Structures are given as C-alpha cells and as structure tokens.
Amino acid sequence: MRDHVVAVDIGTGSARAGVFTSRGALLGKGEHPIIMNRPRENHAEHNSENIWAAVCTAVRAAVAASGVNASVIGAIGFDATCSLVVRDTDGKPLTVSTGGEDRFDTIVWLDHRALAEADFCTATKHQVLEHSGHFMSPEMEMPKLMWLKKNLPQSWARAGYFFDLADFMTWKATGSLARSRCTLTAKWNYLAHRKPGWQTDFLNVIGLGDLRERGSLPEETAPVGESVGTLTAEAAEALGLDRECHVGAGMIDAYAGALGTLAGHAGDLNALEHQLALIAGTSSCIVSFSRERKRSTGMWGPYYEAVFPDTWLVEAGQSATGALLDYIVGMHAAGGEPTAALHDRIVKRIAELRAVEGDAFAERIHVLPDFHGNRSPFADPHAVGVVSGLTLDASFDGLCRLYWRTSVGVALGIRHILEKMHDYGYVPDTLHVAGGHVKNAVLMELYSDITGCKVVVPKMNEAVLLGTAIAASVSCGLYDSLAAAGAAMYPGGHERLPDKRKKALYDRDYRRFLAMYRHRAELDSME
C-alpha cells in the first residue's frame, strides 16, 4: 500500500528531503548543499542541474534513512524559493548571468538586480498591483524577466521555457508543463480569481507581451494538492523511486511552511483567520488566511487559492533576519564565521548579561533591521538599516549587546507588520513559528513578548517539509482534501504566552522604533 510520501524543500543553500507516513511521522531525512554564484552586487544565481542533482541525493538519503521501499511511496512533492529558471527551446540550461555561463540558468529569489524594473512596474499602477501590496518587489518574477529581456537579449531570443523553481522541479520529474496556482498567483502576477488569469494588458505595458509564448506558460494552473503526473523513467531512476509515484503541484516554500504550521486549523476557517504562520530563517515570511479579500498595502497579496481552496492568502515579511544576525556576527571585531556554535555562545552570554543588568542591558542601542530593504509594511526595496547607540566597545560582550538589540529590532519589525495587518482587518492573535529561528532562544522570547501574541512551535520543527508532505498526500489520494490531511498529519505544538511584565518596556522600544523610521526619512529628504 502506498501510504508514504516524500517531501522536498529547496532553500537558498541546500535541498532537503523527508519521508513521511500518512499520519505525519517523519521517518528519515536527507540534505545536500547547492551552489550559488554571486558575480556582482545584488546578483545571485543558481545552477538548476546542480539543484536537481542535490534533490536526487537528498531524496535517496531520506529514503535510505527511513527504511521504507519505494513501492510504498505514493507521491513526491516539491516546495522551493521564488527563483526563476530559464531554459532554451530544447529544455537545456540558458544563462541568466552577465558572465555568460549557461549553467547559471536560475536567478535566486534574493537577487535584487531588477530594482529599476520593479520600480517601473510599480509606476504603472496597474490593477494587478492591488494583489502585490500596490508595489512590485525585485524578488518577484516579472521584474527579473524584464531585466533578462533588456540586458541579455540573446538569452531571451533563445528561451523556450520559464519556470518558478518549484514548477521546474515538477517538470523535471514528470515532463509536464503544468504550473502551480501557488507559484503563478504569488510570484507571476497571475490573478487566479479572474478569467483569464494572465492580464495581457499588464504584460504589454511592461514589455513582456511575448512572455507566455516565449516561456511556454499555460493559461490554467494546478491547485495545491493536485497531481501533475507520475515520475518519468529517468526521474524515477535518479530519485530512487518508481514510476507509480505521483508528483504534486509545486509550492512556494513559505506557503508550504504555512500549510505545515496551520494545518491543524485548516478545517475551521473561523479559527484559521486568527492564526499566523511565521516562517523564519534567512529571511522571515508571515502568512495569514482569510475568507474574504482584504486590502493589503505594503504586503504581498491577497492571493486567491494560493494554498487553500476558496481562501485568500496575504504574505508579509522581512528580507533579512537570520541573514542580518549572521551579518552582525560576521562584521563585528569580536565575531567571525557565523556558525551555529557561535550563535549559541552569543545567546548564552546574552542570558548571563541580562541576568546581571536586567532591562538596562544595551538599552541605548537601537536597530532598524532594513539592511536588505523593507519588504513589509513599506514595500521599499531601497530602504537601508540604521544602528544608533554604538560605542568603541569591540569586545565579545559588545557583540552580544548589538546582537540582542538587533534581535529586538527584528521582533519590533514583526510587531509593525502585525499592527498594519490589524488596520486592514486581519485578526491574527497567535504566531505559529517554524524554521531556524525556533532554535534561537532570544528570538523566540522576543517574538512573544514584543508582539503580545501567543507563540506556538510545532512539536516537529519541520513545518515546510510537513506542509509539502500534506499536499503530496492529497495528490496521490491518501486524503481527499488539505483540511483532512492536515487534521491527520499535524503533530500539535508547544505554546508560549507573552510576559506581560515586559509590555511597557517594549512599548517604549516600539515608539523609538517608529521614531527611527521618521528620522531616517528626514535624513533621506534633506537636500
């Protein structure tokens, strides 16, 4: 009986795979690194063949670790970052790099080369922007495609296929050109609630009137939980699976994480609207669901059926959170390579210093965490970070003080987003946190105490893989809906309530946080 599924998560630096039972138990995991090319500032590129090879290695390792046979695996699902894969008319890699190497055929999600193109899209004020917070981000696919057509016309002329990375994986696995509703709605300005979903007038305005033909992009999309086919012989051999294995429609990684963290509430839309998924790692993504379309200036969405049927999704986030803490550790005189061990050492020393100094610890240091732009609520990719209160202290304790206050700034940014969401009619009061930040005691304390929200951490901190497994289980018929699969596979979570004694302290920090935004704007406006 095919009562197991494989979930694959393709992140910024690695591909991970897990084998799950139909009850959500994770039996085995595998992981393999992927390479990134950084030829110049704001440029980041992957090699999609390297990614596919990493996925195959990870899947084989996960299956071996699980101890199950390929004959019991009913489906494989893929989630991935919003990265753009470009292939020629023969399906071979086609360069997106100024260096001209065809192997670098993928523009990574965090690549900001298309800032000018994103600004151009925003300036059109087209109605599609009502579903991207009225702003276009350089992390979306349209600006990247505009950049490609303008700056690498030879690649554009040779192009035959454009894929979001998750859709590339399902194509590689099945040969199907189906595209996921999740990816196209969230990252390609496809309006799933409209017929047709592609807005031809918008494509013409931004100079991409030939996009669909050039990229082999279909009119219809595959909802999350639908099978797009079974494995080809070549893919089955490479993955160590068999040809009876279904392949589920791809997902954006943050949305897979939202499904994995909120799956226990999927059957109750009233309860679901009060839950918020915070998928926090290199960057942080906040995902909320609603039955009705709501305004979302400065956030991504609302997107119709990006995950659940008949439901709207809105996403907010911070472009650099874990990456920002890594940067602080790496740039400080007392820091170094930002390893997990060094982060742990800093977190432990912060606890010791706070035990001695109390609330006065590092109280004069203030940080605006926009070091890689502000994704939400300002939707300003040009925004920069600000630090106030530095001294000549270059000691390890000095690093701990700056790390602590940077973490405070990150959590204050989450509070800022939540307050804007409440202004627009969203009602979340519980944060379900998943990702690397769960391992950081400083951040987990601050997320609760600064936002005033109950924080829930799933008992199994593999929410992204779990969400992808839930969708895969529906695609092969183990369950008839995402809600049913979620109810069966969600493991429950551990709760943390905010410390109300800290409210006045962090209210003051929040007022200072907003004041820093005003002062930054004042400095930027001076002539």
Broad structural category:
alpha+beta
Largest sheet: 7 strands, mixed
Q: Considering DSSP H and I runs of 4 or more, what fraction of the residues is helical?
A: 25-40%
Taking pLDDT < 50 over at least 5 consecutive residues as the criterion, the unreliable ranges are: none
> What's the gyration radius in Å?
22 Å
How far do the termini sit from each other? Answer: 71 Å
User: What general outline do the C-alpha atoms trace?
Assistant: globular
**Beta-strand percentage?**
15-25%
User: What's the number of helices?
Assistant: 18
Number of strands: 20
Task: Give average pLDDT, whole number.
Answer: 96
Please summarize what this structure is.
With 527 residues, the chain is of the alpha+beta class. Helix content is 39%, strand content 19%.
List the main descriptive attributes of the protein structure presented here.
20 strands, single chain, 527 residues, alpha+beta, globular, seven-stranded mixed beta sheet
